[in-house]
Every structure is written in structure tokens, then in C-alpha cells.
Specification:
This protein is an alpha+beta fold and 641 residues long.
Length: 641
């Protein structure tokens, strides 16, 4: 928990001390929530959700942990009452919403409601902007257990500020209400979300197709280090379906027609393997297991998937660490060889306080280490005037900086397991290690640089609408780093010499291990005749940049392949390994245990292996596990000491 700070304010002639907690502090969700959401299901309102509640109880899903019954859009009236309070629709809840909540509680279930941090919801019902306190008090009075807060308008106001207002209002009620937010299709900054809510969406609304749920898995994987007990990444709900050939269950009790936003019930058909892949990835990612489907009419084979106690156990593991993508092939040409997933490198503010550092490493010793710190390892002696080559080791990842040759985009840099013999991991400080210098990669002959548009703000015109203010490229999710041809500055013999390329100049400090970019906020590189030196006409960005391991440098998920290995730690020294086949044909996939990146696990390490889908022990394995995984399917294994 965050330690409170205190503000001193004047109240009349007295001093008032106000405790300010910088973050959500409700003590809820030690593990991800499980239940139902109406968004992509035909059930809504009192009748429909009542049917779902009864099914959760009778089917045994409640006993497995599915306790939340959440409504999406359509529960409220278009206007507030005379006291400014939200009103439920008597058509949707003829018995009254509080009475329905009491019914769920009597069934040992919980109720979730939908709202928005904007002036209106996406269906243009009343939103909570400017009404946070009264709405939070209303939810508490009704007995609501879960609030999903959308981001449907008021985009000019930063979503993190609007969501913080509702966070504080909920905290003030003292009610135990899980807070789920989905602002980040508009403001993609999930690192702030750990201070805002118990759950945070990492992408746009999901739709029921394989490509979409795989895309959301890639996005959630990017932010995997943020997840921990009390707060989890949310790739959206799970819209499992009956497989093709199974009789569609269209005959069900008549339900009232309610106003809906999007996500009206439509026929969806996943194979059993695709249902396993969908549910298995969500379990791995410590994602909310909120089913959005016609649950009472799902085939038994599909119910067995979502009710698999051992797979659910991975999701509900008390350690709360999100498993992450470890290895992938070089899709689209799968050659049977999997390679370690490259990790991101980007820019961080050099003056940022040392707090909340996130690393993709599963090595517990590296958690909280400053991602801007680099060790410089010499690899060769200076000979015949050639610069000494170095490896640049990132302290928070125990990985080395490597050039990533251009594929379908500009060449850039990544972090890979250190390999001193790999020329792509060898770097030369061209002007010397202890001065401002360009840094050139031995494998490509290119120098590390920051794009001009990252350093200096420029006017952007997304979708034909120009910004009113100059904005750096990084605000649009464009990678800030690139590899360029080295530029050797000629010998300068006069004060007016400015013949250098500032984008590729860096300084590594042995004092703190930071690799600073040499261009700061106030550049006076321009000289106008008769006017002396002046600021550059393009205003540089506000921060002084340091090279760092980052979770994201663009608006995309982690790289993907036909074959992937995912994994992560569980409680009591166990691990989970997943063999993921995203291809349309069966694949043989191998997962070396060392891919977990834990120092104590190597090629001679052995574990007891258990197939979680089959509830079957596979005996003890040394070094790795392998399996032939069907198309669009996933194998899930638990490794125990």
C-alpha cells in the first residue's frame, strides 16, 4: 500500500490535516473476478440476469468461483431524479434494482453495474462526470459490488483524472465495490491505472473472433508486469461459443427488449480448441474470467472448459503474477525453432523518481530495479585506432541492448539475453566512453538515435484533423528510437561550429549508470545573423531523455508467432507453461524450462509435469517439455518441484 502524504489547509483559523492516498486502497480482488457480463449475451435485465444467476448456482459454476452477475448498458433511465440521482429502468427491473441485488446476495452471488466517467454513457444515458459522489453513494445504497466505468465522451479531459474522481468517491463510501475502468482505448497509459482501479482495460471492445482475442492477449501481455493482487490487466470479457455443428440454442424464455449499446447477441462459432485457447490465455494472464455468452445453452464440452478447476486454479493463484510470452517463432515461416521474445527499449524521463519500475523479467531479484540503469562491459581492446566494443547490460532485465535489423519498419533496438559473440549486441562509443558520443552497432554499422519528431514537437494531423499544439511522435505511439548512419563531426575550430547530428549523441555516466541523450529542453543551436543565439524554432519536448527498458514504445501488443511459449510462477515454487498454437495446422512445440528466465532454472532442472486440461500427471521431465498442439489450441502444463 502507498504511504499517505499530508496536505495542510486553512479552515477558518484552524489547520486541517487531510490524508491523501495516491491510489486505490479498497483491499479487494486478491485474485481476478469471475462471473458473467451481459454485453455479448442475450440475457439482460431482471429476467435475463435472474436466469443467469439460477444457472450459475445449478450448474456448479458458482462453486467454481463465478459469483459476479454484471449488467452492461441498458439498466438506467435517460434522466436523473429530482435529487440528481441515477434511476433504474422499471421495464428492466420491475421489482426494483435494490430488490434484485438482494436476491443475488441471497444466492451468494454479487451484482455488477455499468457506468461512465464521462458526461454520458456510450448509449447516451447519464454519466458520472460531476456526479461522482452522489453516484458512488447511490451504488453503495443499492448494494452494488462491482462498477464497470466506461469512457464514452468528454475526451478532452484526461481519463486518468476523471476515473480518479470516481475512485475517491467509492473509497469515501466505505463500501466494498470493485472498480473496473476502460479508458485506454482513448488514453493508452495503463501504468497510471494501477493507481486508479482494480481492473483496467488494455484495448478496445472485444469481438467474437479468433484474431480479436489474440490481439487482446498480445496487448495484455505487453502490460503483464503491472498485474498483482488487487489490480489486474483486463483484455475484456470471454465470449465462448458452441462449436460449429452444435445445435444453436435459439429457443429460450422470452426476455424483455432493452436498450443496448453495442454487443447485441449474435451467433458465434469457435471450435473447442479455440474456446480452450481463448479461456486458457485469459487464465494465464490473470485476466477477469467474466463470461459473456448464453451460458444456459452452452454445450457441455464448452462448460467443461470454463469449469476446469485446474485451469481456473492458475488464474486464481494467490501469487497474482501474470504469466507472459517467453518465446516465439519467426512467423510467417515457422521452422520449428523458437526464439526468446525481444523486450522493449525506449525513453524515460531522466528525472523521474525511483518508484514503480516494471520489468518483464520473472526474476524476483530484479523487481523494482531502475530500468534506466546500464552497465557497460568492454569486449575488446582498442587496436589500430578501432574503438573498443562494449555490451550494454540493462540492470532491471539482465539483458543486453541489441540491434534489431529492419524488417517491415525502420531498424531499432531491443533487449535480448546477453551473447557477447553476437555482433548485434556489440556497441562502440565512437568519441570515447567518458564523453558525449555517438554509439554505433558493430553488426549493422548504424548509430543509436532518437527521431527528430520525438525530440522536437511537431504538428500532427491524425485522420485529417490537425492538433492545436505541437506534439511529439511518441504521443501517437510511434517508436522513439531508430538506427541511423553515423555522423562524424568535423573538427571544430570556431565558436560557431554546430556541425553535428544531435539525434545520435549520448552520454553514459558511471556515477549513476544512466545513458542520457545529449539534447535537452533548451537548445540554442540556431544562430541568426545579427540576432545572436536563440532557441530552435521547433520547441523540444519537455523531458530529458534516458535510455530505458520500457513495457511499450508503440500502440501495439507484443510480437506474435505461429508457435508461442508462455509461462510464469505460481505459489509454492510451481510454474505454469503454455504451448500456444496460433497457426491453422498442428505444430510441434517445445518449451525449455530455462526460458522462464529464473536464475535457478537451467537445462538440468526437472519438474513434475501435469496436464491441466486432462487432469493428468505426465511424470517428471528434465530440461524441457514438448507436445504436438492442434490448430488454434493451447496446451497447459503445471510444473511442480
Amino acid at each position: 500500500k502507498q504511504h499517505p502524504t499530508y496536505l495542510v489547509g486553512m479552515k477558518g483559523r484552524s489547520l486541517a490535516l487531510c490524508a491523501v492516498v495516491s491510489g486505490l486502497s479498497n483491499g479487494l480482488l486478491p485474485t481476478p473476478p469471475m462471473g458473467f457480463n451481459s454485453y455479448m449475451a442475450p440475457q439482460a435485465g431482471e429476467a435475463g440476469l435472474g436466469e443467469i444467476a439460477d444457472f450459475l448456482v445449478s450448474s456448479g459454476l458458482r462453486g467454481a468461483g463465478y459469483v459476479y452477475v454484471n449488467t452492461d448498458e441498458g439498466w438506467e433511465l435517460k434522466s436523473r431524479d429530482g435529487a440528481g440521482r441515477l434511476q433504474w429502468s422499471p421495464t428492466a427491473y420491475p421489482s426494483g434494482l435494490p430488490a434484485f441485488v438482494q436476491r443475488l446476495h441471497a444466492q451468494r452471488l454479487k451484482f455488477g453495474i455499468y457506468g461512465a466517467s464521462s458526461g454520458v454513457t456510450c448509449g447516451e444515458d447519464p454519466g458520472s462526470l460531476y456526479h461522482e459522489e452522489v453516484d458512488a453513494a447511490t451504488y453503495a445504497a443499492w448494494g452494488v459490488d462491482f462498477l464497470k466505468s466506461d469512457n464514452c465522451a468528454s475526451y478532452a479531459l484526461d481519463a486518468s483524472v476523471r476515473f480518479a474522481a470516481m475512485r475517491d468517491a467509492l473509497n469515501a463510501t466505505g463500501a466494498r465495490i470493485v472498480y473496473s475502468t476502460e479508458p485506454f482505448a482513448i488514453h493508452p497509459d495503463p501504468e497510471q491505472s494501477v493507481l486508479l482501479s482494480n481492473l483496467w482495460r488494455v484495448g478496445c471492445d472485444i469481438s467474437a473472433n479468433v484474431g480479436t482475442f489474440l490481439d487482446r492477449a498480445d496487448l495484455s501481455d505487453k502490460w503483464a508486469p503491472l498485474a498483482a493482487p488487487g489490480g489486474f490487466n483486463d483484455p475484456d470479457m470471454i465470449a465462448v461459443s458452441n462449436p460449429s455443428g452444435h445445435a444453436a440454442a435459439s429457443a429460450h424464455p422470452a426476455l424483455p427488449t432493452l436498450p443496448r449499446d453495442r454487443g447485441e447477441h449474435t451467433a458465434r462459432r469457435f471450435t473447442l480448441g479455440e474456446n480452450r485457447l481463448y479461456f486458457g490465455l485469459w487464465a494465464l494472464m490473470k485476466a477477469p474470467l467474466l463470461l459473456s455468452a448464453d451460458l444456459p445453452r452452452l454445450a457441455q464440452q464448452v462448460l467443461h472448459i470454463v469449469n476446469n478447476s485446474e485451469v481456473i486454479g492458475v488464474n486464481q493463484d494467490p501469487l497474482g503474477v501474470q504469466a507472459r510470452k517467453l518465446m516465439l517463432d519467426g512467423a510467417p515461416a515457422y521452422d520449428g525453432v523458437l526464439r526468446m521474445l525481444p523486450w522493449k527499449v525506449g525513453l524515460e524521463d531522466c528525472t523521474r523518481a525511483n518508484e514503480r519500475w516494471y520489468t518483464r523479467s520473472l526474476d524476483a531479484a530484479l523487481r523494482g530495479v531502475d530500468t534506466r540503469v546500464w552497465a557497460v562491459r568492454p569486449l575488446s581492446r582498442r587496436q589500430l585506432g578501432a574503438p573498443t566494443r562494449h555490451q550494454l547490460l540493462n540492470a532491471a532485465t539482465d539483458r543486453c541492448l541489441a540491434a534489431e535489423p529492419a524488417g517491415d519498419r525502420s531498424a531499432t533496438v531491443v533487449l535480448l539475453p546477453c551473447n557477447g559473440s553476437d555482433a548485434l549486441q556489440q556497441w562502440s562509443f565512437d568519441d570515447g566512453l567518458h564523453t558525449v558520443s555517438s554509439i554505433t552497432n558493430a553488426g549493422t554499422g548504424l548509430a543509436l538515435a532518437v527521431s527528430n519528431a520525438t525530440l522536437r514537437a511537431a504538428m500532427h494531423a491524425p485522420s485529417g484533423h490537425a492538433d492545436g499544439y505541437a506534439t511529439p511522435d511518441t504521443a501517437y505511439g510511434l517508436p522513439p528510437l531508430q538506427l541511423v548512419r553515423p555522423y562524424a563531426q568535423p573538427a571544430c575550430r570556431g565558436r560557431d561550429c554546430q556541425d553535428y547530428d544531435p539525434t545520435q549523441k549520448w552520454y553514459w555516466s558511471a556515477a549513476d549508470g544512466k545513458l542520457r541523450h545529449a539534447l535537452f529542453t533548451a537548445s540554442i543551436n540556431d544562430r541568426v545573423s545579427g540576432a545572436g543565439y536563440q532557441l530552435t524554432r521547433k520547441v523540444p519536448t519537455w523531458r530529458h531523455h534516458c535510455l530505458a527498458h520500457v513495457l511499450s514504445d508503440e500502440n501495439a501488443g507484443t510480437p506474435s508467432g505461429h508457435a508461442e511459449v508462455w509461462g510464469g510462477p505460481l505459489a509454492n515454487g510451481a510454474y505454469v507453461i503454455a504451448l500456444v498454437n496460433r497457426f491453422t495446422q498442428p505444430l510441434h512445440i517445445s518449451a525449455p524450462f530455462a526460458a522462464l528466465g529464473v536464475p535457478s532454472i537451467g537445462t538440468r532442472s526437472s519438474f513434475n509435469v501435469r496436464d491441466l486440461w486432462a487432469h493428468k500427471s505426465l511424470g517428471r521431465a528434465t530440461g524441457k517439455i514438448s507436445a504436438i498442439v492442434p490448430a488454434h489450441d493451447i496446451a497447459l502444463m503445471r510444473l511442480s518441484p
